[in-house]
Amino acid sequence: MTSSSFLFLVIGCALVTWLPRILPFTVADKLVFPEKVNVFLSYLPLCILTALLIQSLLNFRQGQWPTIKLPELVACLPALVVGYYTKDLMKIVIVGIIGIALLRFLLGVL
Question: Per the UniProt record, which residue ranges are transmembrane (predicted)?
């Protein structure tokens, strides 16, 4: 593969990745939605983050009930407390990363 075709491939992949993620925001920014739609859309970030949190705390296997990942759940608790009091996403992420790192270190040492 030549360098120019590789460059076109990278640019094409960037456009295909960028367009479906950015284009709806630019179009929706110019539209005026009814109040009910705005209320509905305000819940989407919370729903998406909750789904990501639950997915990271549970092991899913076909034909079985989900099982809890105990270290991730223990590391999640201080992050949830920090989130409740600070409402700062950066602090939540830092506390969660430090919590899981400490747990993995302690479990690896024991």
Answer: 40-58, 92-109
Q: What is the pLDDT along the chain (110 residues), one digit of tens a residue?
A: 678 889 999 999 999 988 888 888 788 778 888 999 889 888 888 888 888 889 989 999 999 999 999 989 999 999 999 999 998 889 999 999 999 999 999 988 76
Owner of token pair 């270190």 = 105
Residue 73 and residue 44 share a domain: yes
Based on the fold, state whether residues 19 and 56 are members of the same structural domain.
no
Same domain, 86 and 46: yes
Residue 50 structure tokens:
């909750």
- Residue spans of beta strands (DSSP E) within 4-79: 58-59, 67-68
Q: Distance between CA atoms of 20 and 1, rounded to whole angstroms?
A: 27
Question: Could you list the residue range(s) of the whole structural domain that residue 94 is in?
Answer: 34-109
